[in-house]
Specification:
By secondary structure, the protein is an alpha/beta fold. It is 33% helix and 14% strand. It has two domains: 144 residues, 3-Layer(aba) Sandwich (Rossmann fold); 190 residues, NAD(P)-binding Rossmann-like Domain (Rossmann fold, 3-Layer(aba) Sandwich). Helix 5 crosses helix 7.
Length: 355
């Protein structure tokens, strides 16, 4: 029997890899592209497509999830391979319980781009880049005290610099800390899943979330969306932040309670925000965020989009993961999102090649 691969969210750039998998004996079933169909795949369509599959392969889906029902629709299912770095559209807990691996695409060109973009957004807000540009071009004016920026790092004159709080010290958070290190600013972070030694190695002080919110001049979010992090920043958290602080979110929109953020900005409980991600994407035309002026810096979820980035590198990672899983081999553990599932997966599939 040929191994069955269901491509639940196809992308144009991966078409050659689908043909390559077919040439290796795989039966490929490709769902309609979400941006062509009026709707993304429904739960029933996902269950139907996944039934009898050995692998599920695709990019992000936003209106539904690869749920437990989808995962349980095939007792042969070995792998859910994602082109994206985000896995919030997969019930990872259910996959782990069932002994199904979930792979993702943490390519440096993408996660490194998030760190660099976050730094750029931070500087844009702190240095009042937009305001100075508009002041000169539109107002025809010269210097103005309202355009004074914030000095980030420490100085020899005794200025200690600002405090930058990183929520999530994974790949992106760590790269950001490394980029900031030469500046001499105080960098603090919260991440209960990272060892103390990692904090120390990157010059970061470990604190709890409440301390981070209260002491940071910049709060930047770099966590995945899950039950623990959904709406982790809401009204109570904004009330704890400094009124001069700014919030940066280049992770996922649902980490922030968006109505609470809008209210905090309108009431000037915080000074500003830079957002690359939103609770609803694309950002609705009637979103109040569009009318907040310089209080928000908005970007259309493309902080990773730089020369040499994009989904290309992740296509290779996902395809390699599919081939490994179908050969009965554990894919590269660096791209396995739920590594705790590996022992059970080995008991079910190790050494059992379908190719």
């Amino acid at each position: 029997m040929s191994p069955k691969v269901f491509v639940f969210s196809p992308i144009d750039a991966a078409q050659d890899t689908y043909r390559d998998l077919q040439s290796r004996g795989c039966e490929i079933s490709v769902a309609p592209r979400p941006w062509i169909s009026p709707m993304q795949p429904t739960p029933s369509e996902l269950v139907s497509g996944a039934r009898g599959s050995d692998v599920l392969l695709g990019s992000m889906i936003y209106n539904t999830t690869v749920s437990r029902d989808v995962l349980q629709s095939s007792d042969r299912l070995r792998l859910v391979a994602k082109y994206s770095i985000g896995c919030e559209d997969v019930d990872v807990e259910a996959a782990t319980e069932l002994g199904i691996l979930v792979s993702y695409g943490p390519t440096e060109s993408n996660w490194g781009g998030v760190a660099e973009g976050t730094l750029g957004n931070m500087l844009c807000l702190l240095k009042k880049v937009r305001e100075r540009d508009r002041h000169l071009k539109t107002d025809g004016a010269w210097r103005d005290p309202a355009l004074v920026g914030t000095y980030v790092g420490s100085r020899a004159d005794g200025y200690r610099g600002i405090t930058i709080g990183i929520v999530g010290l994974g790949r992106v958070g760590t790269r950001l800390a490394d980029l900031l290190r030469p500046w001499g600013a105080r960098v603090i972070a919260v991440d209960p899943y990272v060892a103390d030694g990692h904090f120390a190695a990157h010059g970061v002080e470990r604190v709890d979330l409440q301390t981070l919110l209260a002491e940071s001049d910049v709060v930047t979010l770099h966590v995945y969306v899950n039950r623990e992090t959904r709406h982790m920043i809401g009204a109570a958290e904004f009330n704890r932040m400094k009124p001069t602080a700014i919030l940066l979110n280049a992770a996922r929109g649902p980490i922030v309670d968006e109505p609470a953020l809008i209210e905090a900005l309108r009431a000037r409980r915080i000074a500003g925000a830079a957002l690359d991600v939103f609770e609803t994407e694309p950002l609705p035309l009637d979103s109040p965020l569009r009318g907040l002026g310089d209080a928000v810096l908005l970007s259309p979820h493309m902080v990773t989009n730089n020369v040499g980035s994009g989904v290309g590198p992740a296509i290779t990672l996902a395809t390699d993961a599919v081939l490994s899983a179908l050969r009965g081999e554990v894919p590269d553990e660096e791209i396995i999102f739920n590594r705790e599932a590996i022992p059970q997966w080995k008991a079910r599939f190790a050494g059992r090649s379908l190719l």
